[in-house]
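job 3f2a | input accepted
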Amino acid sequence: MITLQEVSVEYENLTALNRVSVQFPSGKISGLIGPNGAGKSSLLKSCMGLIPEFSGTIRFGEHDLRKNRHWIKEHCGYAPEDTILPSYLKGTELLELIATLRQSIQPDEEINRLCQLLHFEGKENDLIINYSHGMRKKISVAVALVGKPEYLIIDEALNGLDSLALFSLKHDLLKQARGGKTIIISSHILPLIEEWCDPIMIMNKGTIIQTFTKAELHNQQGQTKQTFDDIFIELINKS
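job 3f2a | predicted structure (239 res):
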């Protein structure tokens, strides 16, 4: 479980996060969705220690982020929306490097599994500089998955993945969640969040304005005859 208590982030005159308190449960894929500038990336970057200047408390299980940053980095996989990849390496070379850093027990088997999972077999030995946008997204997600981390944060990193990769990844992440992992996915793709995630947190203006379990969302849809898009836009407009 990842727990935030009264977390705020200020950028000069802008409040990116405003006293956010939320729990991302273990054994679940939690979804985070909101318009541009809602604070999603600021929240997730704060969890990763990439924004050290925040007030409040962030805990990974019993580990306080400020006191145990090194432990959290070792046990958390992170796939951001934009990442700078070492273009002079082959895909497999990057994954081998990460596997070494994370002390993967069976690196070759794990790398082969990730190549199959994300459907980039045949491209894994190409230089990253020659990768398409979608291939760069795949390798970024694969890097986050190496070492089977206890915590996994995917921040807008699924945009650009093809349908085959998304289908395989969904079932793999659901299996990991059932095994007790804590997984957070931030995305602008409402159908993906609705289908993959439970619970779902909606953010706007630096705060979480609504949290749904999947059952609660489906119940509201049944009662109001609204789609998730309708409910989302209505909540954003009211906040």
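job 3f2a | The chain has a mean pLDDT of 92.
job 3f2a | closed
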